[in-house]
Design a protein that fits this description.
By secondary structure, the protein is mainly α. Helix content is 70%, strand content 0%.
Length: 91
């Protein structure tokens, strides 16, 4: 059973993932500027993964694959009425 307390904890965790993903993206840009392209790619992948964890809104994550996370977010959005027309703004 999902309680309000559980939902609140999940949203706090999701927000933490988003903030960390934003910091990873800044780091990726900085690495790219300094010519550390391999590291920039890794950091950008980490940023995408964390943003998708935020979009999913759960703590129960069993994969590190960006592709699988995108698929999972699409499955969740398909079950939420009106979610398909809603898009989150980028920063």
């Amino acid at each position: 059973m999902v309680t309000a307390e559980t939902m609140d904890a999940n949203m706090k965790e999701a927000d933490r993932w988003l903030r960390q993903g934003e910091r990873d993206l800044v780091s990726a840009r900085n690495s790219c500027r300094s010519g550390d392209f391999e590291w920039a790619c890794f950091q950008a992948q980490q940023s995408a993964q964390k943003a998708l964890l935020y979009a999913q809104g759960f703590r129960r994550i069993l994969t590190h694959s960006v592709y699988e996370l995108i698929r999972e977010v699409a499955r969740i959005r398909a079950r939420v009425p009106g979610a398909e027309g809603r898009s989150e703004g980028t920063r």
